[in-house]
């Protein structure tokens, strides 16, 4: 993972001072080579030791290591922004569609980097365990119900018994039938709904496995999870950030679905689709 990507991915988990440093680095990456750690600290009105601790927390030996890594990331980026040395005319600004595609790609890459393969495999293993006689409970409130409903349908196509609900009272009642081997998927972008935390706690008391899907930040819901899938999507524009979140989330769920298909459910999926197809054509 590049230095800039690592900073973006970890930003939501940083302290207020660390976020100030992160934002400065992200906004002034091209100029960072001209700053010493003391100059950076002076520009932000913080101590030099805060800058050093920020670098070390991200896994760098110190500020020079961070600065070198940021410079490498800029050098590798083929974005055509710096054309002064070649004499070429400046590249035209990307259109809105291209910029959105680039931002979505970046959010998907960040999300992929903070959900290592072993975490995804653990979630897939839990779902496969539930498919062997158990159930998968799925809940999301408001807009979070959209991906919850979609994954419930996909799991059903694989022959996995799902209990999908968007009402916390009904789901609380359903959880009384849960037991060891069952899985609860909880979709909550911000992870702050007390009712979902209560459902997660009850589910774990029943011996089930709780999987949460939230933003990559500290939130109460993650404290009740056995496994946490995280989504990283950041943008200062209020109308763009939700689009990045949905795109990165969908890509994460698609990866999970593909792994389930490749783990022995492909034949069941094909058989189910063959039964459904005549209904769609009728």
The strand line-up of the biggest sheet is 2-1-3-4-5
Which structural class is indicated by helix and strand composition? alpha/beta
CATH architecture of the largest domain: 3-Layer(aba) Sandwich
Q: How would a crystallographer describe the biggest sheet?
A: 5 strands, parallel
User: If you compute it from the alpha carbons, what radius of gyration comes out, rounded to the nearest whole angstrom?
Assistant: 22 Å
Distance between the termini: 49 Å
CATH class of the largest domain: Alpha Beta
By CATH, the topology of the largest domain is: Rossmann fold
CATH superfamily of the largest domain: Glucose-6-phosphate isomerase like protein, domain 1
**What spatial form do the alpha-carbon principal axes imply?**
elongated
* Number of H- or I-type helical stretches: 11
Number of domains: 2
| Low-confidence residue ranges | 80-88
Portion of residues in helices? 55-70%
Instruction: Give average pLDDT, whole number.
Output: 87
Number-wise, the strands total: 5
H-E order: HHHHHHHEHEHEHEEH
Keywords: DNA-binding, Transcription, Transcription regulation
Organism: Lysobacter zhanggongensis
Protein name: MurR/RpiR family transcriptional regulator
Pfam families: HTH_6, SIS
């Amino acid at each position: 993972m590049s230095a800039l990507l690592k900073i973006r991915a970890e930003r939501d988990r940083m302290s207020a001072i660390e976020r100030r440093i992160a934002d400065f680095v992200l906004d002034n990456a091209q100029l960072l080579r001209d700053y010493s750690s003391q100059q950076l600290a002076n520009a932000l009105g913080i101590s030099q030791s805060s800058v050093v601790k920020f670098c070390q927390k991200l896994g760098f030996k110190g500020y020079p290591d961070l600065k070198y890594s940021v410079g490498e990331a800029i050098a590798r980026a083929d974005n055509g922004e710096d054309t002064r040395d070649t004499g070429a005319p400046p590249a035209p600004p990307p259109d809105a569609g291209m910029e959105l595609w680039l931002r979505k790609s970046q959010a998907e890459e960040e999300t992929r980097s903070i959900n290592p393969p072993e975490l995804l495999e653990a979630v897939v293993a839990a779902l496969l365990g539930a498919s062997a006689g158990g159930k998968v409970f799925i809940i999301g409130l408001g807009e979070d119900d959209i991906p919850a409903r979609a994954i419930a349908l996909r799991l059903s196509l694989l022959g996995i018994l799902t209990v999908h609900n968007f009402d916390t009272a009904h789901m609380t009642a359903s959880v009384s039938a849960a037991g060891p081997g069952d899985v609860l998927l909880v979709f909550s972008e911000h992870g702050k709904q007390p009712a979902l935390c209560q459902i997660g706690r009850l589910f774990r008391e029943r011996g089930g496995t709780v999987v949460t899907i939230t933003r990559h930040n500290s939130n109460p819901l993650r404290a009740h999870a056995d496994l946490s899938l995280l989504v990283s999507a950041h943008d200062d524009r209020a109308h763009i950030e939700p689009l990045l979140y949905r795109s990165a989330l969908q890509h994460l769920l698609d990866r999970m679905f593909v792994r389930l298909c490749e783990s022995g459910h492909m034949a069941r999926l094909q058989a189910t689709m063959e039964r459904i197809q005549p209904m769609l054509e009728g």
